[in-house]
């Protein structure tokens, strides 16, 4: 078998180049709910959309419309692994080269990247220099902080999360290692040209922490203070608390866990030397799925990057390659393309922080789009509902309660779903809840059940999905098999404004793809229709 050929074979490095499920606990009244991507809104179809082409600078302030009360742990942040690794050849380079002195970071931030991975070495005892292993990346930590500060000053709605790592060993280095070094202090009367200057002294982790503290002081106001005090890791903050700030997610290899944000390293995927692209993709998908399912206010970090000695290089894991076996040439898709397609069309369900090699614009967009549920939808929409602790479902536009309406007949097996003015003490006919079926595989979807145990149902209509505007029923729950007319996807969203938002939900029917809604013509009437309608974006 011949050596596999990368997508980049013969291409020189450029200076500038151009059903996923989400199971969440919504609240005590609602229970758990599933998020699945829709067909609309997919970004990217080609490998180059996911790999090496960051596209246009259209994502400069994409956080501006995210609600202030959104937890950083609930967000999806596109990031770069070894953010400034642009020198050292194919075995070391992990990002497109937009220039030295952290100009590559500047370009990434302008293209929507909001999580960075900075590796530093102490050089001369007085400064952090940026390295990938032994290779100096022609940037210093001052460059990183200066570019980040300039960006956040220009776009104060944004925040940047940084993983900082002391990259090199402490003490004596090997042939392929860098070592932290500080310039020796020569005795009085001897100069730097004397023999004493040829024996640099080892740097300790304490020295690294002390030096970092000096950077924090020199860049006063830049960092999110609770993350850099060194007195203990900080609770996961809200977006309002970190707008315009650089958040230290973690400070690694410094013999201390007293920095950063709690849980930043708790749910982490970083099989950096996975034996194959397929295996790496399996790891990535598994952690992303865990992030989507977990409703706890904790950080998830997934490194989609890998390198396996000289057998498989970073750009091959990211961008894929061609291989030939038995005279047949086949393409192995990279992790970036697979992740882009996996996230295509989905606009809900946090995936956490995703640290990538050579990301493309569509992959970045598909991660950002996962934050759409945190963008308040104005004062309300008839297809968005508030769920209260008394188990009432209140329409966000009309402020009316969904009601189990009159029975069809004396059998009481079903009836109409209506709406009316909400009561100060909710009667049982106003109460609903989301519940997973136990007698069959619900495929992640849920019943919306009335207090009498009946299910919210789209009329069967002789097997043809009914149109928008159709009034809904309550009906006996089908317990023998999956019935899409009774299965709902519950998608968290928000109403209000960026500074004053309320959690709310879209309920999407599995069969019709339409959302639980209200009939505008009867919205003010007691007994008005509860219907299905086109889902809001």
TrEMBL record:
UniProt keyword annotation of Signal present: yes
Catalytic activity: a 1,2-diacyl-sn-glycero-3-phospho-(1D-myo-inositol) = 1D-myo-inositol 1,2-cyclic phosphate + a 1,2-diacyl-sn-glycerol
Residue intervals of the Phosphatidylinositol-specific phospholipase C X domain: 68-251
Pfam families the record matches: PI-PLC-X (PF00388)
Disordered, as annotated region: 172-205
Biased composition (Polar residues): 190-205
Signal peptide start and end residues: 1-42
Statement: the UniProt record of this protein carries the keyword Signal: yes
Top-level EC class as recorded in UniProt: lyase
Organism lineage string: Bacteria, Bacillati, Actinomycetota, Actinomycetes, Kitasatosporales
Annotated EC: 4.6.1.13
Protein name as catalogued: 1-phosphatidylinositol phosphodiesterase
PANTHER family reported in the protein's UniProt record: PTHR13593, SI:DKEY-266F7.9
InterPro entries reported in the protein's UniProt record: PI-PLC_domain, PLC-like_Pdiesterase_TIM-brl, PLipase_C_PInositol-sp_X_dom, Ricin_B-like_lectins
Species of origin: Streptomyces chrestomyceticus
UniProt keywords, alphabetically: Signal
């Amino acid at each position: 078998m011949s050596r596999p050929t990368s997508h980049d074979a013969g291409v020189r490095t450029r200076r500038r180049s151009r059903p996923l499920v989400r199971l969440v606990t919504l609240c005590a009244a609602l229970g758990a709910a599933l998020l699945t991507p829709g067909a609309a809104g997919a970004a990217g179809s080609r490998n180059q959309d996911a790999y090496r082409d960051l596209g246009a600078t259209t994502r400069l302030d994409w956080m501006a419309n995210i609600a202030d009360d959104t937890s950083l742990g609930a967000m999806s942040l596109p990031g770069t692994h070894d953010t400034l690794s642009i020198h050292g050849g194919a075995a070391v380079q992990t990002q497109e080269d937009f220039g030295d002195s952290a100009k590559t970071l500047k370009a990434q931030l302008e293209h929507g990247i909001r999580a960075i991975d900075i590796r530093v070495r102490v050089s001369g005892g007085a400064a952090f220099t940026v390295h990938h292993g032994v290779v100096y990346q022609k940037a210093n930590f001052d460059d990183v902080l200066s570019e980040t500060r300039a960006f956040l000053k220009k776009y104060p709605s944004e925040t940047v999360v940084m993983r900082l790592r002391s990259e090199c060993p402490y003490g004596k280095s090997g042939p392929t290692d860098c070592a932290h070094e500080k310039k020796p202090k020569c005795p009085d009367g001897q100069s730097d040209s004397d023999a004493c200057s040829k024996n640099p002294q080892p740097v300790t982790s304490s020295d690294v922490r002390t030096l970092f503290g000096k950077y924090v002081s020199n860049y006063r106001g830049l960092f999110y203070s609770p993350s850099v005090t060194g007195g203990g890791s900080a609770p996961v903050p809200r977006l309002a608390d970190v707008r315009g700030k650089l958040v230290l997610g973690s400070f690694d290899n410094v013999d201390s866990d007293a920095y950063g944000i709690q849980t930043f390293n708790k749910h982490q995927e970083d099989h950096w030397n996975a034996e194959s692209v397929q295996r790496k993709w399996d790891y990535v998908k598994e952690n992303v799925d865990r992030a989507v399912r977990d409703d706890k206010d904790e950080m998830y970090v997934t490194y989609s990057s890998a390198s396996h000695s000289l057998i498989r290089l970073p750009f091959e894991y990211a961008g894929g390659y061609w291989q030939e076996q038995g005279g047949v040439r086949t393409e192995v898709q990279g992790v970036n393309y697979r992740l882009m397609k996996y996230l295509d069309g989905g606009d809900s369900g946090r995936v956490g922080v995703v640290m990538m090699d050579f990301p493309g614009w569509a992959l970045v967009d598909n991660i950002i789009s996962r934050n759409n549920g945190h963008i308040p939808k104005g004062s309300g929409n008839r297809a968005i509902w508030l769920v209260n602790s008394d188990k009432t479902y209140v329409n966000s536009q009309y402020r009316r309660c969904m009601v189990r309406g009159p029975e069809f007949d004396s059998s009481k097996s079903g009836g109409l779903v209506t709406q009316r003015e909400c009561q100060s003490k909710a009667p049982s006919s106003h109460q609903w809840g989301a519940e997973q079926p136990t007698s069959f595989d619900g495929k992640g979807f849920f019943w919306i059940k009335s207090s009498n145990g009946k299910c919210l149902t789209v009329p069967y209509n002789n097997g043809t999905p009914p149109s928008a505007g159709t009034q809904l029923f309550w009906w006996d729950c089908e317990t023998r098999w999956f019935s899409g007319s009774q299965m709902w996807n519950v998608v968290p969203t928000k109403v209000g404004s960026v500074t004053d938002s309320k959690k709310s939900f879209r309920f999407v029917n599995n069969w019709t793809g339409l959302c639980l809604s209200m009939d505008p013509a009867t919205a003010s009437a007691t007994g008005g229709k509860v219907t299905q309608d086109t889902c809001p974006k």
